[in-house]
Specification:
- The protein is 38% helix and 21% strand.
- The chain is an alpha+beta fold.
- α1 packs across α5.
- The N and C termini lie far apart (73 Å).
- Bound molecules: adenosine-5'-diphosphate.
- The site of adenosine-5'-diphosphate has 16 residues, from α2.
Length: 634
Amino acid sequence: MSNTATNNRETMGFQAEVKQLLQLMIHSLYSNREIFLRELISNAADASDKLRFEALHNASLFENDSELNICISYDKTARSLTIVDNGIGMSRDEVINNLGTIAKSGTREFFSRLSGDQQKDANLIGQFGVGFYSAFIVAEKVTVTTRRAGEKTDQGVRWESDGGGEFAIEMIEKATRGTEIVLHLREGQDDLLSGQKIRSIIRKYSDHIVQPILMKKEEWKDGEQQVLEEDETINQAFALWARPKNEITEDEYKEFYKHVGHDYQEPLAWTHARVEGKQEYTQLLYIPSRAPFDLFERDTIHGVKLYVRRVFIMDDAEQLMPRYMRFVRGVVDSSDLPLNVSREILQESKDIEAIRSGCTKKVLGLLEDLAKNDQEKYNKFWGEFGRVLKEGIGEDFANKDKIAGLLRLASTHADTTEETVSLADYIGRMKEGQDKIYYITADSFNAAKNSPHLEVFRKKGIEVLLLTDRVDEWVVSNLSEFQGKSLVSVAKGGLDLGQLEDEAEKKEQENVANELKDLTEKISKSLGEKVKEVRVTHRLTDSPACLVADEHDMSANLARLLKSAGQKGPTSKPILEINPKHPVVLRLKIEEKRFDDWASVLFDQALLAEGGQLDDPASFVKKVNQLMLEMSSN
Ligand code: ADP
């Protein structure tokens, strides 16, 4: 940041990302410019909530004025719009941090995803959240004056910027606490200088705001509109979630979501209920229609807000929702918790546990309902948040079966990532005699789809789930069965197709294994420490060999995942299985001179085929070339 100081006025440069964000916002949101007012009112409402909460412990913060409200006015001559709140306000440092930088985790990554294509980037900006900076859509200059509640009157701060690269900041006298934002409108924005227009924008986007939004009354007199001294409240000014469901319109629910979710897009679905009984609380929980860009950051914010008897207590009360539901947004309003509840108390509170379990069930119920009655929506949900929900299989023992029922997985049935199957559907179309759910894990869809491990399954027409998310290893290690059917990896343990094979097939396999006993022993000796065992398989139809993990060993895919994450798992050796009908294997039976090279190539290619990496690729290539040359000279 560059500083040039005169008196106490300083000019500072925006963080580079802010500049980019401003440009992007002005261009991409222009057609939707009215949302700036929603964003500023939303911030003012949050500031009032914060003050009310802090004042629970320190009533002097109210400075003898505990009527929290938001005032909107306009000035035709100055061509400005003003938004005033008497909320918590900001100190100088807070102004610099909040209005000069973007303090969100994952910001850099977000910006690296911008393509320069306005249409595409406009979509991304929705994921990022627009907030305060949206003021520059309509304003060529924005002046913010603010003073933090409880500070002396000379601790006011003025911040001013034209949205270019810099902002000016200076200390000023400010009698009232809270924040005033003056927007000096751009050319062509004069239609906003109308009481009627502003009222209609407020009613459309901010009706649900709990604090009264005030404007001066106006009346027509002598053919002109007169602004009177008296205030009137424009919005309903009543907590939306506390109103009866049948009195709330879809649009109201949607607009409220944009406020609590800090989202610019509409929600995908929501559930609103008042829970009575031992614990009394109201929950209004939303599922966003798009994942925020920082869903996988450890410290994502803006989850579910906690209120106690309509007083805001905290944002992102992580105890209200399990981690695997961190995509849920909304409000929980408890009638029983004490107003002075802290994060520490929440962590140990049995009441909160009951609320969390109630909210979790409610969201799972909502998802089940979508899955059943609105597949298109459910698929959309799954595409955005499926990977997060999967974490619940290992995290939430009590709801494991419910979550398993919500899984949607790719499979060999369609061989695409788009078309997925639920475990129940999988079971529904199992082959006669099939009593297991088969799956393969791999680090890419192609690796899974083309894996040699699937050959016999394809031949017999048995469906196999293709699991390629990182989290899938965690899912299958925590989900051993679904509706009484066990989940079995096709790349682990001995292959037991049970009833799917007849007696004759089994007998033949045994015979072949005996016949090739010498060969498997010889290969095993040649490969030495690389393998745990070498055996004949009936898994393969086209490939000469594949690797499998022993029943209780870690899967090769998981071992690779851990390695790439820099962690060391227990190292276990694979089992090499060979296809007794494959010409290469048959050829090996008679090979003498180059047996070791053949065996080594057989092992290495099996490793490559399942997406593994060779320790010594150069020597593999050399051996292959050598063998090719020999073949061609024969
Ligand atoms: P967001 O609201 O999503 O955090 P914004 O860019 O809208 O992002 O605002 C950034 C921060 O500036 C807010 O989190 C808040 O701390 C502060 N802020 C904005 N407007 C106000 C206001 N009217 N009163 C107090 N603080 C404010």
